[in-house]
Amino acid sequence: MNFNSGDTAWVLIAGALVIFMTPGLAFFYGGMVRSKNVLAMLMQNFVVMGIVSVLWVFVTYSLAFGVDLGGFGVIGTLHFFGLGHITQAVPGYSGPLTQHIPPLVFVIFQMSFAIITPAIITGSSADRLAFGPFVVFIILWSILVYAPVAHWVFSPNGWLFKLKVEDFAGGNVVEINSGAAGVALAIVIGKRRGWPHKPMAPHSVPLALLGGGILWFGWFGFNAGSALAANTLAAHAFINTNTAGACGMLSWLVFERLRGGKSTTLGAVSGAVAGLVAITPSCGFVDIFGASAIGLIAGLVCAYAITLKFKAGVDDALDVGGVHLVGGIVGTLLIGVVGTSAVSGINGILYGGSALLLLHQLIAVLACGLYSFSMTWLIAKTIDKTMGLRISQEQENEGMDTSLHAESAYEFGSSILEAFK
Amino acid sequence: MNFNSGDTAWVLIAGALVIFMTPGLAFFYGGMVRSKNVLAMLMQNFVVMGIVSVLWVFVTYSLAFGVDLGGFGVIGTLHFFGLGHITQAVPGYSGPLTQHIPPLVFVIFQMSFAIITPAIITGSSADRLAFGPFVVFIILWSILVYAPVAHWVFSPNGWLFKLKVEDFAGGNVVEINSGAAGVALAIVIGKRRGWPHKPMAPHSVPLALLGGGILWFGWFGFNAGSALAANTLAAHAFINTNTAGACGMLSWLVFERLRGGKSTTLGAVSGAVAGLVAITPSCGFVDIFGASAIGLIAGLVCAYAITLKFKAGVDDALDVGGVHLVGGIVGTLLIGVVGTSAVSGINGILYGGSALLLLHQLIAVLACGLYSFSMTWLIAKTIDKTMGLRISQEQENEGMDTSLHAESAYEFGSSILEAFK
Amino acid sequence: MNFNSGDTAWVLIAGALVIFMTPGLAFFYGGMVRSKNVLAMLMQNFVVMGIVSVLWVFVTYSLAFGVDLGGFGVIGTLHFFGLGHITQAVPGYSGPLTQHIPPLVFVIFQMSFAIITPAIITGSSADRLAFGPFVVFIILWSILVYAPVAHWVFSPNGWLFKLKVEDFAGGNVVEINSGAAGVALAIVIGKRRGWPHKPMAPHSVPLALLGGGILWFGWFGFNAGSALAANTLAAHAFINTNTAGACGMLSWLVFERLRGGKSTTLGAVSGAVAGLVAITPSCGFVDIFGASAIGLIAGLVCAYAITLKFKAGVDDALDVGGVHLVGGIVGTLLIGVVGTSAVSGINGILYGGSALLLLHQLIAVLACGLYSFSMTWLIAKTIDKTMGLRISQEQENEGMDTSLHAESAYEFGSSILEAFK
Amino acid sequence: MKLIVAIIKPFKLEDVANALSKIDIKGMTVSEVQGYGRQAGHTEVYRGAEYQTRFVPKLKVEIVVADEALDEVMELVVTAARTEKIGDGKVWVIDLDELIRVRTGERGIDAI
Amino acid sequence: MKLIVAIIKPFKLEDVANALSKIDIKGMTVSEVQGYGRQAGHTEVYRGAEYQTRFVPKLKVEIVVADEALDEVMELVVTAARTEKIGDGKVWVIDLDELIRVRTGERGIDAI
Amino acid sequence: MKLIVAIIKPFKLEDVANALSKIDIKGMTVSEVQGYGRQAGHTEVYRGAEYQTRFVPKLKVEIVVADEALDEVMELVVTAARTEKIGDGKVWVIDLDELIRVRTGERGIDAI
Ligand SMILES: Nc1ncnc2c1ncn2[C@@H]1O[C@H](COP(=O)(O)OP(=O)(O)O)[C@@H](O)[C@H]1O
Ligand SMILES: Nc1ncnc2c1ncn2[C@@H]1O[C@H](COP(=O)(O)OP(=O)(O)O)[C@@H](O)[C@H]1O
Ligand SMILES: Nc1ncnc2c1ncn2[C@@H]1O[C@H](COP(=O)(O)OP(=O)(O)O)[C@@H](O)[C@H]1O
Predict the structure, then answer these.
(1) Membrane-spanning residues where (chains A, B, C) (predicted)?
(2) Which end of chain F, N or C, is less packed with Cβ atoms under 10 Å?
């Protein structure tokens, strides 16, 4: 096979960048929880890397991208189990771009998505999810939720793909999917003791910002890597990503001021993430005006959306729903509005396109969101009834780090503890 | 257009690396301020990413690289407003390399420079710059200072470019420009309360070193990416960058010992940054001997230069002048001494080149340095007279994090605050 | 020369990634020491970057990859001193792949290995190694240990290379080499005051995990970059790396549970590193089943191996021996078992290969391990007798940061110290 | 005046402060301390090295009260801080010679 | 001997120490505490969740003095720590039974 | 009952606690403080700005004892904490009016 080394280099490094996003997410989340729970949060994210990496090469890649089972576009077979037959092109793809990069590079790149998606969910159940049940949850969720949804949207044989739903880098597969799952999990597991009247301030905003910085960096791999080539389309995705992140940050900060408060650093980074989430599905379909609009809207809408959890009484601790579900919906739908064929052949209604596109996008949003929500609810409920999903009240008081993992995150004023234990 | 995918991949990832440098810089600076001001410092750097990203695609890219206005080589037009006409090659470039990467990739890469340059300035005014005025400052500075200076030096139609001034990766545009601006801003805003007799020790040297590590990493994108291709020239720039950073570190440490003190970690990373600054303009013109010399000299000169602020009574808090201005001058001028045609066709006087090169470099240093200094002074003074540039004494005492942004950076011993607010 | 820009881009970015691993290692180690010694640990790692970067371009690259001295395959000459003759291909390589990337890119990539290897050693002597002697140690070790071992294994003229020993990315040169050296250094320098009865808990597990995250990220450059091209082999190395890291994490966690304890975050990241170490030599020779096996075995074996130091009474503070030496041996030997020609032409005994391969691997392990151990012992002993290797008891009590470097790492509750010194 | 010093479990601070605010005692000074006593710490494990911490994080609450209020306040503090599990802490009382409010210079009971 | 305990605003420590060094009192022990009183804390906002902190960072300064020096030192401390804004803090005085200098075993006033 | 307050060098805590555990005193409360006195701090340098810290980290150990035990405990603490170098710290003694164990409500000596 005569692969293009430049494209291959780009997708390889993009894959590495996206894998780096999961530790980044760990720090983003870890900084936002209290110091007694930070290791448990980091642990969940790192362990997702362990579990999903192995699942992917043996099972879930094949379920997501393998030969379609029965032609319904619902799920793949185990054709690629253990990376067997991996020199074959991805089933369903054809045309000149099919084999410009080694199929194994595609496996790697898609793996990075499969890892970060369940990792995002960990934010909603922060501070109270037991570790053993968490491991079971991740395995089941990857197989029963991630693999099918990825098949529907990303596999050329998936039913949403065939419906011509557009999702450049995972607005449905990653963002809506994890966001809806996060809300379901938060509902099943219940509120943290003391929420919402008790303040649960971030223990290290700089750590959260470090995570945010890594996420922004990695997102270039996420979105521009999804072009699967080092070309003009990748460049469009890249600049749109950066612009939308920037606009999301600015509009979130404006929202904070309009509400009468001060602009906060956590708001800045949250807004950036909201913009980045929203541009994920759309980055390959819009121009810089569209990207700006999407970023600005996402920043405002998400800044508002995260306040809804207080009204709904759902303790989505780190706003997985408000940012990823809502941001993912915003970006997925807006393709149908501001998509422009000047970038890649699809026009939203603003550019004279048919409303059918918007309808298809809506179907995708509903299908993925509802499937993920209900399936996650079911998985979580089942685990809760059998193993128990939640740590004990005493563990919650003491903190998860010492009670679940026998570790303390920090020993700064070490003199006392060091001298004598 | 038939773009080279390998070159495109390289410049895309280089752009991502340089964008990652701005969070890196935020941590480098954030670690060096006191814990009550760290978020404000991070905030300024993150907000620069938000503001300049948007400005660039709409306005400043076009001003810097657009069709020259009137042919004076002073500023571009708004030809590329909102990335219009962006399939056109950069005006003024010609020859085979012109279109080997998509023009949009060039826009991205140059954006990363436009972001980090004003971010560097934030170090000089640390601990006392008000947030609203800061936002205004950054907008004005990007348009009135960054865009023209970038046009002069980087645009093929710029007057310094046409004078054959050599600046491989932004010694003038980034380093001298930000360094001179930093000094001007520090002068206008005035000293911190208690400076210099009151100690203002870094609150987290590890955070500063994390920033330093990210900067070093990103600098490979900065310098080797400036070759705009994945080729031998990029490799020269890469190895020169690393060597000069290393030499800067070592000579700064030696300087510390010679002055009778201990070698410090902050000294190590500061020396590395000094070396990296100085090699920025020169990395594509010198060999490994030249790079070593530049790094060693920069480490020594900058280590000495940062002590001058105490004599001058200018509270350039994080040594933007001592490191970026001075390091940038060292590297820009030394091209005229140790530049060698073995690397890219230009000989410094040591290699038999004409003194004219050195003269041109000197003109560039003076033009960029003086323009930046005076224009920044004017902008800062204007803002100071109208909105006020500086926070109140009470805010300075309390710290910027709580007073400007309603956040505390850390809650380690969270028991008290968590239990009860 | 007509270089391949895609391959060049890949190896350049891989080199940058690996250079970024050394700060990553610094944080990994720095998080695990007590807060009074963290800067000294970071300092050692950053200074290694300074020293080895310079040594490499002037001396050690040439010793490692230069024309063989006398044809014994033991050491190179100074042919490439100061990067002279650097347009020549690496001596000994021939065939189509020889000149697909600029030789200078190879110099860069190999430099990143030469830097991180001695940096790894710093973990064993943590909390007690004096700074001046450390500098001398690194210089001597790079010349007397790293350069020859790299020549033996990586240079086509090296005796182990000619013996057809397989080491894809440095199991011998980096892992066994640094691991054996770490054990020797720990023996010569002696135990920390109070070890092992006194607890010396990590001062910041999040910092250690940040380091671990950076290491995982950089390891893609390390291993997949070692293909020296952006191709299918690089993809194999990439996915094997990720899989083995994941498996190492999981099996280490299982080991912790089997021993009756809780699974720890430091265990998760340690297991990942163990898996990554073990896959380093083997990533280009095994398939996903082999990589999984290697990762699982490495996690278990290393988790057990780190407990041996307590039995042996050797204070290898951060387990350089238990992880790098043992993991390196596991990975190097297992090539002879699970190597498969389906990936790159070599069969281990499980795939019908000859036991000769295993024998050669064993010879390499013994040669590199024993040479590194004894040479390091000699160097350390000599320094100890002449300059003294170890800090004073008072410095150990007070902490290295203030006593060696006149710095405190953190000032969180800054009010007291800030107000008045 | 008396100084009541209470060593309590950290998560009991809210209850103690709430109890006191009911009798209009709205001032106190709190610091983080490490307690050593009958209550055992937790086990920590770092790379296989396992140990038992002997110090347990506690809060030290200091409240200046008028002599008359002493018994009532002590009673309230002890009741609010109690969990009936080992490690609930101690309360001790110190007699004060003098008290001044820095802002005004008021002395004695007026300064509380 | 008396133990003077002063709860002060953190940025006032320098002034207090300078004042004392003038009358040749050069020893003290300082710790970080959280004060709860009339002075309100600041508002913090995290992703839209807003709250008011009730504790304010203070320093606790402890100074052992001879009985004779008590009044002068108290006066100096109070004056140096005063900003006349709410939250300036309290100073209280405790009688000591004994004092020893660890290094020498000296007791009483000699140990100060 | 008496409250013994000892300001000691941090690395001496282990010795102090060990000494006390021999006479079956197994409770204490420890906090981190900064000491200011004859002992000089260390020099710190940040980018060429050099200064001398005046505060030295110390631990404050508080032990409640019965009147009878006072002398023995003080003696043990002072001996265990001594290095004979400047900065070893001080020990002072405060008389307590009352002591309660929160868990049980026991008072006085029984509460120790
Ligand atoms: N003799 C003592 N002097 C000072 N503080 C003590 C003493 N004994 C106990 N304490 C403090 O009281 C806390 C609780 O004591 P502990 O013996 O654990 O439980 P309990 O008071 O319920 O019997 C300890 O953590 C310590 O802070
Ligand atoms: N009853 C009290 N007991 C102990 N400390 C107190 C008491 N009341 C106030 N404080 C301390 O004094 C500080 C200042 O008190 P506050 O009421 O805010 O202002 P002011 O003393 O100026 O009236 C508080 O932050 C707290 O640390
Ligand atoms: N007058 C004082 N009041 C309160 N604490 C004091 C006083 N003098 C000294 N200290 C404490 O004792 C510690 C040791 O005192 P220092 O004068 O340095 O040495 P030494 O006690 O050996 O003479 C100081 O760091 C401080 O914490």
Answers:
(1) 12-30, 42-64, 101-122, 129-149, 169-189, 201-222, 234-255, 264-282, 288-308, 320-346, 358-380
(2) C
* Terminal alpha carbon distance of chain D: 9
CA of F102 to the centre of ligand 2 (A): 24
- Residue B416 belongs to some domain of the structure: no
Nearest CA residue ID for atom 9, ligand 1: F27
Maximum pairwise Cα distance, chain A: 74
The answer to whether residue A419 sits within a structural domain is no
Here the ipTM equals 0.97
| Phi, psi angles (nearest 5°) of residue E98 | -165, 155
Q: What is the CATH number of the domain that holds A60?
A: 1.10.3430.10
**What's the rounded Cα separation, in Å, for the pair B306 and B324?**
10
Taking the C-alpha atoms of residue B298 and residue B322, their distance in angstroms, rounded to an integer, is 10
Chain F residues whose CB is inside 8 A of the B32 CB are 46
d(CA A189, CA A388): 9
Whole-number Cα distances in Å, E30 to D19, E7, E14: 29, 10, 12
Number of other CB atoms surrounding residue C216 within 10 Å: 28
DSSP D52-99: E---EEEEEEEEEE-GGGHHHHHHHHHHHH--SSTT--EEEEEE-SEE
Residues spanned by the domain of B131: 5-410
DSSP-assigned beta bridge partners for residue D3: D64, D94
pLDDT digits (tens, 9 = 90+) for B102-131: 999 999 999 999 999 999 999 999 999 999
Q: Which residues of F touch D (CB under 8 A)?
A: 1, 3, 17, 26-31, 64, 94-103, 105, 111
Distance from residue F107's CA to the centre of ligand 1 (Å): 13
Q: Which CATH number fits domain D2-111: 3.30.70.120, 3.30.450.20, 3.40.50.300, 3.40.50.620?
A: 3.30.70.120
Token couple for A374: 């209900």
Q: Closest chain D residue to E90 measured between Cα atoms?
A: D101
Residues of chain E contacting A256 with CB distance shorter than 8 Å: 45
pLDDT digits (tens, 9 = 90+) for C253-285: 999 999 988 999 999 999 999 999 999 999 999
Angstrom distance (rounded) from CA D76 to CA D22 = 10
C417 and chain F in contact, CB less than 8 A: yes
Going from the Cα of E33 to the center of ligand 2, the distance in angstroms, rounded, reads 11
> Is D10 close to B416, i.e. CB distance below 8 A?
yes
- C222-245 per-position pLDDT tens digit: 999 999 999 999 999 999 999 999
- The total number of structural domains that make up chain B: 1
Establish if B419 touches chain D: CB-CB under 8 angstroms: yes
Closest CB to F3 among D89, D91, D92? D92
